Here is the input.
Amino acid sequence: MPDKVTDKQADVVVLGAGIVGVSAAYAARRRGLSVVLIDRREPGSETSYGNAGILSSGSIMPLNQPRLWRALPAYLGNRHPALRWDPGWVIANIDWVARFLANAAPSRIKPRATALHGLIGASLKLHREWIVTAGAAQRIRETGWLKAWRSEATEAAKQEQALLADYGIESRLLDRQAISALEPNILPVYKVGLLHTQTASVDSPGAVVKAYARMFASAGGEIRQSEIRVIAPDGEGWRVTLVEGAISARHVVVALGPWSADLLRPLGYRVPLAFERGYHREFKPNPARSLQRPIHDAEGSFLMTPMEQGIRVTSGVELTARDAPSSFAQLDQVVPLARGVVEFGDAVGEPWRGARPTLPDSLPMIGPAPRHANLWLAFGNQHIGFTTGPGTGAAIAAMIDGAPPPFEVGAFSPGRYL
Ligand SMILES: Cc1cc2nc3c(=O)[nH]c(=O)nc-3n(C[C@H](O)[C@H](O)[C@H](O)COP(=O)(O)OP(=O)(O)OC[C@H]3O[C@@H](n4cnc5c(N)ncnc54)[C@H](O)[C@@H]3O)c2cc1C
Here is the structure.
């Protein structure tokens, strides 16, 4: 058990030390505030550990877009590697599903893409600055991200390129030869590629979050490893109850990723947060057949990223309860496909499971809770939370400090759902 804590006071307590919480804590500390960051595990041990490590410039189109409607018939049989769904969960959460699908309407594309573009731009700027300050610059690769099609999908790739270009996001259309020149160690299975040239990636997202957490501690922040039990208003501020005592703070930031709704429920907030679960497994690379960058197999519905421990293959979406037992069906489907792209050896370690926290419009909540002063919400970063953590955290810190956030935050207001 951690040391007992009594009469501790801070300007800000940040709950959750994933990429979002660590970023909020560091940004608040940089503004001269006293900050305590709390997590039951070491920083960067959950969702922010197991992701594909892509710092994506181009993920401005959430999953719920018109293409999703067209793909639904293929998902109904529940055997597709892109999406598996638990019928019981879907029935119990039909309201969330209906709102998620409604947000796929064409009229909902532009406002959300514009909002995400602002958040992503601010976040990438901070990642590129912080990773150097944190002494982890060797972990970032500026080699882009390759989306690749096995079929003659030039039109689809061109459409995607045009949409990105509307937002000033650069990409390069590639044919089979150009893909081979770019990734000489993969087999020639892809006919068309789109290289997101302004996207970066890291070789260990968990290690990057840990490096940011050390940077926060070096700047005078405090990290406590403890289970958070309850948060409750206390005079003008908040009381955060831990297993070993309590901390009082003027401001509390909820950055608990997929667990964020739990501590808010006793305060009367019913957060429509769902869990797009995903899996990864890592494999021993063949040093003579290395990958230079993450590859997204568009039709195979998986990603492969070269990581510190090996090639990390990540799966599509499993829509079910956050804590339902694991099912490795999607990984089992895609690993043989990945082996057909690049040569790799045995698995390293066990398969990993995580939950992308997603609100019905696929935009995170970034801002004040509507019915409680000094309670700040920072979660719901869906498929791109590793990318967007720094911008999310910096915006929260700015709002706490009464300063303008580094991008337009209106679309992320928690009040839209609470
Ligand atoms: C398979 C997969 C691939 C992905 N790939 C990418 C990618 O390539 N690029 C990208 O940008 N994003 C990616 N994502 C999404 C990204 O990983 C998440 O959006 C992001 O990590 C969420 O960060 P977070 O800080 O909100 O949550 P988390 O990292 O989950 O942090 C929440 C923290 O809260 C703590 N906590 C919860 N409850 C309590 C409690 N009661 N007491 C104490 N501590 C508590 C947990 O221990 C945890 O550390 C991927 C996700 C998955 C699943």
The longest strand covers residues 344-358.
